[in-house]
């Protein structure tokens, strides 16, 4: 009996030093990713593995790949190592484990790390049903839709590193794929901001681009919800007024610009009118008037012929004298001579013209014509 106990004691002493390694009693390391486990395509990411100060080497395994996937020496002070990925692509998306080596053997594997790449597909749409305003303690339904046929959707909450909900998609009435997530109960002391992603169940770590965020507003009771609705309506009215004011200001500016463009054109036309008026002055009432109408021209010729036919025998013709008194006498004499003729007489009042007695002879035809031009006047019939 004593021999048996002694043998068992010796066996325990000999096996004791190897028991922690064989039984895996070394503490398992901790694994995490920076800046996070959900990384946009082509962005850098670093995987950290932390063990003990006695660690001599760290290894990283990726499920589905040859083991070890990577190995690194510990950084000072020796309790952790980092594994860098310069550009995130589909080949780095997956599930990772890390472990470390000490003098007596290998540690246990860490918990799995899901490294996800986003940006592989177009973003889905996320909406809250029936409204993003929820009473405290109530639930809300978030609907995530995708037109490219995603067969799985992931809903994430801001501030949490792990996916909050994962659901397989269901076809909707429009033929798109969708998933309905029920969130609650809601509490007012938290901020509820959600995004959703789509993926293929055969590649669960390759996601689409994130949807636009949806923030849920939690009110204390129905009265708070009513106040929130009224404040939303007031903010909408304020936005409408701002838009209306902006449109009016733009209209006034355009009208002012149009007036500035038209004023120089108007002044230019007025200047041209003044110049033409100065170049071609209108005849005065007491002066000679020249008509461009054919009827008036014919009448002028007839009147001129009548005057020539009714001239007195002494041959009274128009001429210019030097004094105003003689002009008046000559005009009166001409009128008296014409009135004595038996024929129909046309009376004319001539302004600024005088009568000149001209004795013409046959020999004067060969002479040069007088230097002064002949003047024809429009005679008004009385």
Measured between the Cα atoms of the first and last residue, the distance is: 174 Å
Poorly predicted runs: 1-23, 281-348, 350-367
How much of the sequence is in beta strands?
25-35%
Element order: H for helix, E for strand: HHEEEEEEEEEEEEEEEEEEEHHEHE
* Count of individual beta strands: 21
Class by SSE composition:
alpha+beta
Specify the helix fraction band. Answer: 25-40%
Give the integer mean of the pLDDT values: 73
The assembly state of the depicted protein chains is single chain
Short synopsis of the structure:
The protein is of the alpha+beta class.
What does the secondary structure layout of this molecule look like, with pairings?
Layout: H1 2-15, H2 19-23, E1 30-34, E2 38-40, E3 45-50, E4 57-62, E5 70-72, E6 80-85, E7 94-102, E8 105-106, E9 113-118, E10 125-129, E11 133-135, E12 140-146, E13 152-157, E14 165-168, E15 170-171, E16 177-183, E17 192-200, E18 203-207, E19 214-219, H3 222-279, H4 294-309, E20 316-319, H5 324-339, E21 354-357
Parallel strand pairs: 2-9, 11-19
Antiparallel strand pairs: 1-3, 3-6, 4-5, 4-7, 7-8, 7-9, 10-12, 12-16, 13-14, 13-17, 15-16, 17-18, 17-19, 20-21
Region (Disordered): 358-382
Protein name: Leukocyte immunoglobulin-like receptor subfamily B member 4 isoform X14
Pfam family, one: Ig_2
């Amino acid at each position: 009996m004593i021999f048996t106990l002694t043998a068992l004691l010796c066996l325990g002493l000999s096996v004791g030093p190897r028991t922690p390694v064989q039984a895996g009693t070394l503490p398992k390391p901790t694994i995490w990713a920076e800046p996070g486990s959900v990384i946009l395509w082509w962005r850098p990411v670093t995987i950290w593995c932390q063990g003990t100060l006695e660690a001599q080497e760290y290894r990283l395994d990726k499920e589905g790949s040859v083991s070890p996937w990577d190995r690194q020496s510990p950084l000072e002070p020796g309790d952790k190592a980092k594994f860098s990925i310069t550009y995130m692509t589909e080949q780095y998306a997956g599930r990772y484990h890390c472990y470390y080596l000490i003098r007596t053997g290998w540690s246990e594997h860490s918990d799995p790390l899901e490294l996800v790449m986003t940006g592989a597909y177009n973003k889905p749409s996320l909406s809250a049903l029936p409204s993003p305003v929820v009473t405290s303690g109530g639930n809300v339904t978030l609907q995530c839709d995708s037109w490219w046929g995603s067969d799985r959707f992931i809903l994430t909450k801001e501030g949490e590193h792990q996916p909050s909900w994962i659901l397989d998609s269901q076809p909707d009435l429009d033929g798109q794929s969708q998933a309905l997530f029920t969130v609650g109960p809601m509490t007012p002391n938290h901020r509820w901001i959600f995004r959703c992603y789509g993926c293929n169940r055969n590649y669960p770590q390759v996601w689409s681009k994130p949807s636009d965020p949806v923030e849920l507003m939690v009110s204390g009771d129905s009265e708070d919800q009513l106040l929130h609705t009224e404040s939303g309506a007031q903010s909408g009215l304020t936005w409408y007024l701002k838009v209306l004011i902006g449109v009016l200001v733009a209209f006034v500016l355009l009208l002012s610009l149009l007036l500035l463009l038209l004023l120089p054109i108007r002044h230019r036309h007025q200047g041209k009118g003044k110049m033409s008026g100065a170049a071609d002055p209108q005849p005065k009432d007491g002066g000679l008037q020249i008509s461009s109408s054919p009827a008036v021209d014919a009448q002028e010729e007839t009147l001129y012929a009548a005057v020539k036919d009714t001239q007195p025998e002494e041959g009274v013709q128009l001429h210019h004298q030097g004094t105003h008194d003689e002009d008046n006498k000559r005009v009166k004499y001409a009128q008296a001579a014409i009135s004595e003729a038996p024929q129909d007489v046309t009376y004319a009042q001539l302004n600024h013209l005088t009568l000149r007695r001209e004795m013409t002879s046959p020999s004067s035809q060969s002479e040069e014509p007088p230097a002064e031009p002949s003047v024809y006047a429009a005679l008004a019939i009385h």
